[in-house]
Design goal:
The structure is a single chain. The protein has 130 residues and is an alpha+beta fold. The protein is 20% helix and 17% strand. It contains three helices and six strands. The strands form three sheets. It has a two-stranded antiparallel ribbon. The protein has a two-stranded antiparallel ribbon with strand order 2-3. It has a two-stranded antiparallel ribbon with strand order 5-6. 4% of the residues are buried.
């Protein structure tokens, strides 16, 4: 949510339609959406939207695709969504069982401008065995 791999995206309307927000879109209009900005909106995620709080999702229903738009929504939902969730859960469960990860002291991560959001200088972390 806070660090989507694709920070902005868009689509051209194939027909007149209405977005989940109620906004009307005419055929051939181009609609941009920005998951990077949406993930930081208090109106969507609350006043603590900039905090990394996994507990906001644990044991709760998945947010609607129109709110958490990283995998798009509707009939054009990303085919890789299930695989991405499976890979993330599998990898994280193995890593956190055996290691702790800490951002290297004094290191400030920055994104490189791109269609996707790579880290400009990588992500320097210290890995410690539990």
């Amino acid at each position: 949510r806070l660090h989507p791999s694709v920070p902005k995206d868009g689509a051209e309307a194939a027909s007149d339609c209405t977005l989940p927000s109620g906004a009307r879109v005419k055929k051939l209009d181009y609609v941009m959406f920005m998951p990077y900005i949406m993930g930081r909106m208090p109106s969507l995620w609350g006043d603590d939207c900039l905090e990394f709080k996994p507990e906001r999702f644990i044991g709760k229903p998945e947010p609607p695709a129109s709110k958490f738009i990283a995998f798009k929504a509707g009939p054009r939902l990303c085919l890789g969504k299930s695989m991405a969730y499976f890979e993330a859960a599998s990898l994280l469960s193995k890593i956190v069982q055996k290691f702790t990860l800490e951002l290297e002291e004094g290191f400030e991560p920055h994104y490189a401008p791109s269609v996707t959001l790579p880290m400009r200088d990588g992500l320097r972390v210290r890995v410690k065995r539990r």
